[in-house]
Write a structure and sequence with these properties.
The structure holds three protein chains of three kinds. By secondary structure, chain A is of the alpha+beta class. Helices cover about 45% and strands about 15% of the residues of chain A. Chain A has helices at about 1-10, 15-25, 30, 40-75, 90-115, 155, 250-270, 275-290, 295, 315, 320-330, 345-355, 370-375, and strands at about 125-130, 135-140, 145-150, 175-180, 185-190, 195-200, 205-210, 215-220, 225-230, 240-250. Classes of the chains: A alpha+beta, B alpha+beta, C mainly alpha.
Chain lengths: ~375, ~200, ~525
């Protein structure tokens, strides 16, 4: 137990301040300290963290203790007379060598842990993770499953008053599901700027760099829902791209894989259907708020100089072919990403129809999902 | 040595007699360091080539591969990944998700790319290998990433890749992942940051 | 001993010109020092007000005050203004005031360049701040401006930032050249290198760091500029570049930069503690060597800021070992200061309080620095509030505390007036309590999983964020109070004696009157 362990190791508080925080720490441990997590690596990291912490505490007690002693006793008001010593080779060599020994003692376990951390070979499940402003795209390399995971609607709608919202900003619409007790390897890359995928309980934090791949791994021992966030500043909504990992038993994982594939098939089938303008507009508004409004703003005005507006824009009021092209494939070197990998045919058709007939745009045409399907 | 004459208010007491050589040196350091900032770019490439830092893979001539060095006792899994950058209306995927290979032997793999554009488009593939250290031992004799690729309207093409993993690949590496990202190079870079 | 001028009269022919032009055209090291110090104070208040916006938005969960884009502009500009506008110019100001007086020189070696290096700064920062009013807004990609967020993905107004950085870089390099030239050529006879006060030593080493790394930063922003406008691909993977290379170049500058902001502080603390312990500094020569080794090590550890970018294991191991080695020379300094206090005869005037606050809280920042240096655990610390807590402990309670300590310690020499001791102590205790309420809880929210640079957070971080914000507002208020103390001290106060402090040593206290005359040491003092 973590409390016992802490209590057993607390020798003396460093200072009044630390004492205060320690007594507070008994009440709500997890809010104050690093998580122990649910993987062998996360526990190793926690132990290493605590080891170094206690070394710092001991050094702190010695240094601050000596300081406090002389502040209390060697003060002029107590009649202290200054000594005149100002060097001592022996002492100076000692306090160079002792810290060196301590550092070596820390470096040895740290090296071992680092080697474990970096050993990503022989994984059972391989998941490609793409950072996209401001969502994550997951591709199960062994399963032909691909989906986008973004901030949940509950959180998105609660930014003005998040009181009482469960897992505010740490909830997504489409969590990733992984089996427990299997080595899972994550391969990170990015479609635009640098992101970092971080789930504290899995002890995985790795940068997603455009054009390059990085990897990391986790072996989750306990079923549960583990939450994390993007950790590298990636633009406006950096604070709004959470990660949810749902760790389940092998059986449940297999069931989920099948269900996910059925779901994808159903979505693909839906694009052959013919839609009415009204339905497309309604669906489009929904998709727009989810996928486009962060940059282009709910009013379609954009943010001048940063994100272009759609109201009256040459794309949204011009040739529909260009409009479809930019939505599906994105625009090089901008935050406009390729939505063909993120949205279904219906979603793309609907949102383009919506954009061409909203914010004062009155093009009047509409795009059918089948058109999009043929362009994939 | 401080000068004895009295200074006037707008001028400092003394400025003369600074050693010329020393001043030149002090100006030269920042100028050189500015140059060094740029020299870091090639230095970084060298650093990457030595340490495998950014996972960029090497290129060798097929003739340079010695067939006697095939190590059939080891099997390495090569996994293939693909990505397409924004602005490129291409579908890009590996034709095989993974391969089992022996170090020292040349293998062929391929990727398929198909353009969904109604006009000619250009892309450049950028390779990346994980773990980065393996990139020191991963060489290609032929690769679509050596050149820019041009696709005609709606063209679909299989693009080959011939590679060899050197026989002295460190023992602990049993699996590598090769990823390509196709970037759009059609647009003039200078106006790509304008919105 | 005192062959220096003893006149207190600053109104004779050799005094300053009057009016605004005095400040525009001045080449006097004391005037320029004053300009630098006022400039950095103004920047501290501007950068501080950005911090208040940040803390106000983070006071409670939800987006109440600003939108995320503006929040990012605030964090970015807060960092840039504090680093380049407040801390660095304040140290240059102190160098201008103190180095000539400490080494017995009449002025800086290159006074006209000195004037230039100051007057570039207001233009540089006007340029930087003006981007708030441009389309696209101020820089919003963090003070570390990682590519490609700051290159391909940044608005057009980013070019103002780039030229602002160029200008402040030129200013810093000119200031550093001046410091080196002064120290090597202007010392009074008998002032050998190993007799120089540690402040002079630490600044000499800092100046070398500045001329070595500011041009690298200039190179990095120049590459950004050409990537943005002239078709190069230094940092663009599509053209064969590498965004991670930006981070390598940036931190090759950035890590020495953090020592640029702390080495002069070591010099200040090494002057103040012996004075109030009435005992010579323990281990003078080991202090010099420790400073030099910290400076050299600072060039070898840059990638410890990048443990999560996917470096090869060998690289991570090397950077971890090199990084934790820095704990040794830094530890030597702390031990030396404590030994200086040991068996001294201490009094606790305001400068001493700030110096003691520095030693304690800088050490806490050092501890978290050691923890961050352990590469595997950095997986959990990196880019969280734990890092934010760490660097604010070393930069606010480190660098800023030393600057405030220096103000209280030397202001009687500068103005001839003692500051109000009671107000000074209130300032210290208020700030110290506030700053710990502000930054200590950030360790907790960081460890609990809150990333840095986010405008809004999940509810479990709410309590500590609110406490932190309260500390932030209190600390901000404390520095407005400091402004009042500064003005009050300049306007008047108890007359300071020439030595000012009972235990003070050094030419500025022993060979010059208080206030120091406009031109000092026209004839070189004799150095014991």
């Amino acid at each position: 137990m973590i409390f016992k362990r802490l209590a057993g190791r607390v020798v003396a508080p460093v200072s009044a301040m630390l004492t205060m925080f320690f007594s507070a720490s008994a009440a709500a441990e997890y809010e104050l300290n690093m998580t122990q997590g649910v993987t062998p690596i996360s526990r190793e990291l926690y132990d290493l963290h605590m080891t170094v912490f206690w070394i710092c505490v001991v050094i702190g007690i010695l240094v601050f203790g000596a300081m406090a002693w002389s502040i209390l006793n060697h003060r002029k008001s107590k009649g202290a007379v200054a000594a005149d010593f100002h060097e001592s080779t022996t002492v100076e060599i000692l306090w160079t060598l002792i810290p060196l020994a301590v550092l070596i003692a820390v470096a040895v376990p740290a090296t071992g842990t680092l080697l474990d951390l970096e050993d990503t070979s022989k994984a059972d499940v391989n998941i490609q993770v793409n950072g996209i402003q401001w969502k994550w795209k997951y591709k199960y390399l062994d399963e032909d499953i691909e989906f986008v995971s973004a901030l949940s609607e509950t959180s998105r709608n609660a930014v003005k008053d998040p009181t009482g919202v469960e897992n505010y900003l740490l909830d997504v619409d489409n969590p990733i599901v992984v089996p427990i007790n299997k080595k899972i390897r994550f391969l990170f890359t990015s479609d635009d700027v640098i992101h970092a995928w971080w789930v504290p309980e899995l002890a995985v934090k790795q940068d997603a760099v455009p054009g390059f791949i990085n990897d990391s791994w986790a072996l989750i021992e306990k079923p549960g829902v583990y939450r994390g966030q993007c950790a590298e500043l990636c633009g406006k909504d950096h604070g709004f791209m959470p990660i949810v990992v749902n760790a389940v038993s092998e059986d449940d994982y297999q069931k989920w894989v099948l269900a996910k594939k059925d779901e994808a098939a159903a979505v693909a089938a839906s694009s052959s259907q013919e839609w009415t303008q009204t339905d497309l507009m309604a669906k489009g508004q929904e998709v727009y708020n989810k996928a486009c409004a962060a940059c282009h703003q709910p009013t379609g005005t954009g943010i001048p100089g940063v994100f272009p507006g759609l109201a009256g824009s040459p794309i949204a009021t011009g040739d529909v072919k260009d409009h479809i092209n930019i939505v599906m494939n994105g625009k090089t070197g901008t935050s406009m990403s390729a939505f063909k990998g993120q949205l279904s045919d219906v979603d793309i058709a609907a949102v383009i129809t919506f954009e061409r007939n909203s914010f004062g745009n009155t093009v009047g045409d509409m795009v059918q999902p089948s058109t999009i399907k043929n362009l994939r | 040595m401080p000068s004895p004459e009295k200074p006037d208010s707008s001028k400092p007491a003394k400025t003369a007699n600074l050693p010329r050589k020393q001043m030149l040196k002090l100006v030269a350091i920042p100028v050189l360091m500015f140059g060094f900032g740029f020299a870091l770019v090639p230095l970084y490439d060298v650093f990457c080539a030595v340490t495998g830092l950014n996972g960029k893979t090497g290129r060798v001539e097929a003739a340079a591969v010695d067939p006697r060095q095939v190590d059939t006792s080891r099997t390495i899994t090569v996994r293939f990944m693909s990505n397409s950058g924004t602005g490129l209306p291409w579908n890009f995927k590996p034709m095989q998700s993974e391969m089992e290979v022996h170090p020292g032997q040349i293998y062929q793999a391929s990727y398929q790319v198909s353009s969904r554009s109604d006009h000619e488009t250009h892309g450049q593939a950028i390779p990346s290998l994980s773990p980065g250290i393996a990139s020191l031992y991963f060489n290609k004799t032929e690769c679509f990433c050596f050149n820019q690729q041009t696709l005609k309207a709606n063209e679909t093409r299989d693009m080959p890749l011939r590679f060899v993993i050197e026989h002295d690949l460190p023992k602990e590496i049993v699996e590598v992942t090769l990823s390509y990202t196709f970037f759009n190079i059609d647009q003039d870079k200078a106006d790509s940051n304008k919105s | 001993m005192s062959t220096a001028t003893t006149t207190h009269d600053t109104h004779d022919d050799h005094g300053p010109a009057s009016g605004l032009m005095r400040w525009v055209t001045t080449t006097n090291h004391k005037d320029i020092g004053t300009l630098y110090l006022w400039f950095s104070f103004i920047m501290l208040l501007i950068g501080g007000s950005f911090a208040m916006v940040i803390r106000a938005e983070l006071f409670q969960p939800g987006l109440q005050l600003v939108d995320p884009q503006f929040f990012n502009q605030m964090t970015t500009m807060h960092g840039l203004i504090m680093v380049f506008g407040a801390i660095m110019p304040a140290f240059v100001g102190l160098a201008n005031w103190l180095i000539p007086m400490m080494i017995g020189a009449p002025d800086m070696a290159l006074p006209r360049m000195n004037n230039w290096s100051f007057w570039i700064l207001p233009f540089a920062f006007t340029m930087l701040l003006s981007s708030f009013f441009l389309e696209g807004g101020a820089p919003a990609f963090g003070w570390t401006f990682y590519a490609p967020l700051s290159t391909t993905f940044a608005p057009d107004s980013t070019d103002f930032f780039i030229f602002g950085v160029h200008m402040m870089g030129i200013s810093s390099v000119m200031g550093a050249i001046n410091v080196i030239a002064t120290i090597f050529n202007m010392r009074a006879p008998g002032m050998t290198l190993m007799k120089m006060p540690l402040f002079v030593w630490t600044w000499l080493i800092t100046a070398y760091l500045l001329i070595a790394v500011m041009p690298v930063l200039a190179g990095a922003v120049t590459m950004m500029l050409t990537d943005r406008h002239f078709g190069t691909s230094f940092f663009d993977a599509a053209g064969g570049g590498d965004p991670v290379m930006f981070q390598h170049i940036f931190w090759f500058f950035g890590h020495p930069e953090v020592y640029i902001m702390i080495l002069p502080a070591f010099g200040i603390i090494s002057a103040i503690i012996p004075t109030f312990a009435r005992k010579p500094l323990f281990g003078y020569s080991s202090m010099v060597y420790a400073t030099a080794s910290i400076a050299i090590l600072s060039f070898m550890v840059w990638a410890h800021h990048m443990f999560t970018t996917g470096m090869p294991v060998a690289g991570e191991l090397y950077f971890m070992y090199a990084t934790i080695m820095i704990a040794i020379p830094t530890g030597v300094k702390i031990f030396n200061w404590v030994s200086t206090m040991w068996r001294g005869s201490m009094t606790f005037e305001t400068p001493m309080l700030w110096a003691l606050g520095f030693v304690v809280m800088f050490t806490i920042g050092g501890f978290s620095g050691l923890m961050l240096g352990i590469a595997p655990v950095d997986t959990q610390y990196h880019d969280t509030y734990f890092v934010v807590a760490h660097f604010h402990y070393v930069l606010v309670t480190g660098a800023l505390y030393s600057i405030i300590a220096a103000f209280y310690y030397w202001v009687p020499k500068w103005t001839g007036h003692m500051y109000d001791e009671k107000l000074g102590k209130i300032h210290f205790w208020w700030s110290t309590i506030a700053v710990n309420v502000l930054f200590f809880p950030q360790h907790f929210i960081g460890l609990a999983g809150m990333p840095r640079r986010i405008p809004d957070y999940s509810l479990q971080f709410a309590d500590w964020n609110m406490i932190s914000s309260i500390g932030g507002f209190a600390f901000g208020l404390g520095q407005v109070f400091f402004l009042y103390i500064v003005i009050k001290t300049i306007k008047g106060g108890k007359k300071a004696s020439d030595q000012v402090w009972e235990g003070a040593t050094g030419l500025e206290f022993e060979a010059l009157p208080s206030p120091a005359p406009y031109h000092s040491f026209n004839e070189a003092p004799a150095v014991k």
